[in-house]
């Protein structure tokens, strides 16, 4: 946030909303009556930005389905689906640093926008730069929906995701919303699960209430080293071995467990596999290839091995829930039963509730699993013994200079034909660049996944060794932060 056209501020929020509104009116004739959903988190200026956006829509006689208080991000696409709205807007920067904010747009289908809508909206913004309204006062077109949508959301989770098993163990856990909005929603879903899951929640008091400064963490991202230190201290004092965490807008979910005196911070892939296996085990009839789960091109390959062994299907997408959500809907239109989707960056989607990642839904499903399994770490080791020990390691480099980031990928990511013959003393078997759509493994050298010229992502497959059946390595840009990410996954030799 800051002054200028390259920052988020009142003017750029108004300009963005004017462009979006005009695009919706031209694309969807029913936009005025269908309305748009608007929500916001607790970051600096989030409330003001949401009110400015609402005022722009109202000035164009478009109904605004208005969340009148703080919400976690999944409630916006949930309301888009329930209200059959023309679009949804969430003012949030998720787990970014304190001085960031963002403007997240959902399409009429409840999924994040993808191309060509994003490019067409950007063009519409450039044709509607003159601000027409500065007023933040609401009109009769602003319809409050917090109570009704929250109740509907809790009911959807309770009726569709909380499954009872023959054995139910009490689950005690420490919870942190990481200075965000998650506590009230987490407390409500735990209460709604009370008849099926016996849970005792201990809250990290120093991080319980929304605070845009995020004073106890360097970055409010549960993936970051040190982010769960306060939660671990709280858990140690209470003698509780399990930690559940959300990021500030509660669309991501993280887990840690203390086993034999050592804290294990689960990776996103490990949580994803545990949730996927629980969902699979909850399918009432025998799974078939029409039962589908989704993951992304940088997530662990373990889910595919589990699916092959158990008879269901896995569908792979580009990174990001805009792709996972869209492909889920496409598969459902084909008659497939889509049960779950995840990506390694702590995102988990349950399409029965919402077509986006949902940290609150993931937490309550994880509690259901723990109430039956006991230790999630022990269950994970059982799955490794059954399907193979899949190792994933992720790292990143902060790269706030866009020109330097582009230079990195010109030297590394844009190499195609010929591509390097060896990497880290291993032979390169396959090279794929999803920025250009190149894939050395296909007959026409075109990737099966869609190319995305607006992002950077290169993957190579390396030959196996005595310890494994091969390594997949990806280097890419982050979709939400100024980072270059590296992801490596290893297939076990007995996989």
General description of the model:
This protein has about 500 residues and is an alpha/beta fold. About 35% of the residues lie in helices and about 25% in strands. It contains 14 helices and 21 strands. The chain has helices spanning about 10-25, 30-35, 45-60, 75-85, 115-125, 145-160, 180-190, 230-240, 270-280, 300-310, 320-335, 360-375, 375-385, 400-410, and strands at about 35-40, 65, 85-90, 105, 140-145, 170-175, 200-205, 240-245, 255-260, 260-265, 290-295, 315, 335-345, 345-350, 390-400, 420-425, 425-435, 440, 455-460, 470-475, 485-490. The termini are far apart. About 50% of the residues are buried.
Notable characteristics:
globular, seven-stranded antiparallel β-sheet, 14 helices
Query: Which stretches are poorly predicted, pLDDT < 50 over at least 5 residues?
Result: none
Classify the secondary structure makeup into a structural class: alpha/beta
Outline type: globular
Strand content: 15-25%
Mean pLDDT: 90
Largest sheet: 7 strands, antiparallel
Number of helices: 14
The end-to-end span amounts to: 48 Å
Got a strand count?
Answer: 21
């Amino acid at each position: 946030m800051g002054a200028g056209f390259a920052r988020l501020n009142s003017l750029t929020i108004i300009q963005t909303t004017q462009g979006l509104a005009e695009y919706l009116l031209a694309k969807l004739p029913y936009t005025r009556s269908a309305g748009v959903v608007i929500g916001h988190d607790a970051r600096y200026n989030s409330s003001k930005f949401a009110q400015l956006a609402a005022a722009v829509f109202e000035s164009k006689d478009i109904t605004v389905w208005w969340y009148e208080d703080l919400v976690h991000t999944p409630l916006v696409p949930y309301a888009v689906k329930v209200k059959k709205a023309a679009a949804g807007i969430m003012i949030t920067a998720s787990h970014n640093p304190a001085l960031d904010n963002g403007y997240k747009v959902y399409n009429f289908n409840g999924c994040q926008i993808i191309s060509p809508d994003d490019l067409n909206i950007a063009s519409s913004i450039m044709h509607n730069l003159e601000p027409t309204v500065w007023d933040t006062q609401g009109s009769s077109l602003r319809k409050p929906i917090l109570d009704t949508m929250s109740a509907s959301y809790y009911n959807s989770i309770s009726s569709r995701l909380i499954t009872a098993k023959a054995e139910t163990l009490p689950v005690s856990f420490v919870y942190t919303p990481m200075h965000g909005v998650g506590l009230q929603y987490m407390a409500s879903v735990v209460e709604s699960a009370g008849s099926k899951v016996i849970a005792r929640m201990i809250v990290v008091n120093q991080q319980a209430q929304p605070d845009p400064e995020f004073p106890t963490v360097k970055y409010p991202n549960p993936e970051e080293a040190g982010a769960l230190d306060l939660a671990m201290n709280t858990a140690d004092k209470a003698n509780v071995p399990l930690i559940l965490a959300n990021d500030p807008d509660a669309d991501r979910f993280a887990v840690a467990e203390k086993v034999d005196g050592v804290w294990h911070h689960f990776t996103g892939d490990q949580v994803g596999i545990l949730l996927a296996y629980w969902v699979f085990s909850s399918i009432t009839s025998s799974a078939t290839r029409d039962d589908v789960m989704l993951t992304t091109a940088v997530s662990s390959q373990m889910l595919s091995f589990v699916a092959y062994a158990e008879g269901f299907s896995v569908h792979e997408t580009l990174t990001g829930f805009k792709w996972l959500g869209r492909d889920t809907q496409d598969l459902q239109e084909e008659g497939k039963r889509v049960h779950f989707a995840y990506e390694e960056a702590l995102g988990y989607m349950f399409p029965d509730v919402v077509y986006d990642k949902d940290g609150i839904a993931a937490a309550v499903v994880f509690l259901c699993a723990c109430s039956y399994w006991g230790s999630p770490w022990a269950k994970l080791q059982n799955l490794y013994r059954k399907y193979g020990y899949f190792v994933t390691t992720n790292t990143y480099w902060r790269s706030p200079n866009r020109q330097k980031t582009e230079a990195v990928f010109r030297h590394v990511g844009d190499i195609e034909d010929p591509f390097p013959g060896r990497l880290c003393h291993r032979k390169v078997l396959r090279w794929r660049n999803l920025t250009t759509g190149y894939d050395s493994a296909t007959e026409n050298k075109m990737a099966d996944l869609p190319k995305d010229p607006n992002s950077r992502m290169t993957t190579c497959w390396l030959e196996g060794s005595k310890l494994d059946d091969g390594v997949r390595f990806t280097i890419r840009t982050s979709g939400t932060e100024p980072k270059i990410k590296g992801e490596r996954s290893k297939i076990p030799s007995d996989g």
